[in-house]
From TrEMBL:
Protein name: Heat shock protein DnaJ
Domain of life: Bacteria
Domain J: 143-200
Pfam families (alphabetical): DnaJ
Xref: SUPFAM superfamilies: Chaperone J-domain
Keyword entries, A-Z: Stress response
Region entry Disordered, spans: 93-135
Length: 201
């Protein structure tokens, strides 16, 4: 494209000779009282004025920064709360793994409030509710209970006692070195491990 083209002249923002000399951008004055120097340096206005700045000259911006305190006017509790909230970017947070309908929910709420446990009262009731409202037994757990000759409503203590009893019966040392029951013993041990991992005992 030629420089003297009619298209090139229309692209320009300002045609040559139209505005004369360029006007200098105005610099703000120093915001310090009684100072008439140009305020080339920005300083934050303070809390509740985020994104707003004061313009100072170099001497006064140094003086302003020495005495600047973002938390001025706030109490210790408010400062502590602000600093704690700043860890999450002042966004709301929730505790993980919290289930309000679980039997342990009341105990967890008391623990957070710093209240003492009521061992004989509601916590005892919650423990009874846990055993009464036992979770549904999965097929592998059902098979493990059958291997140990137990019902699905067996407690953890029942599982432990039955395991000890079967190991004493089936172990070769208890049978005079007879290894005929080793397969059954191995099944019982695996069934007990599975039940233990599932939280039965």
């Amino acid at each position: 494209m030629k420089l003297d083209s009619k298209y090139f002249d229309t692209i320009r923002v300002k045609r040559r000779g139209a505005g004369g000399a360029k006007a200098k951008p105005q610099t703000p004055e120093c915001a310090w009282e009684g100072c008439d120097k140009p305020g080339l340096h920005k300083a934050p206005m303070g809390r509740d004025h985020e994104g707003e700045y004061l313009n100072f000259c170099v001497d006064h911006v140094r003086q302003y920064n020495k005495s600047y305190n973002y938390f001025s006017g706030l109490g210790d509790d408010d400062i502590r709360k602000y600093l704690k909230d700043s860890l999450t970017g002042h966004r709301p947070t929730w505790s993980m793994g919290h289930n309000a309908s679980s039997p342990n929910a009341a105990r967890n709420r008391r623990r957070k409030r710093g209240e003492p446990f009521d061992w004989a009262g509601s916590d005892g009731d919650a423990a009874q509710g846990r055993t009464a409202a036992r979770r549904r037994v999965r097929p592998l757990e059902q098979k493990a209970l059958e291997t140990m000759n137990l019902q699905t409503n067996a407690t953890g203590e029942d599982v432990r006692l039955r395991y000890k009893e079967l190991v004493k019966q089936l172990h070769p040392d208890a049978n005079g070195g007879d290894r005929g029951h080793e397969d059954r013993l191995r099944d019982v041990i695996q069934a007990y491990k599975l039940l233990k991992q599932s939280g039965f005992c």
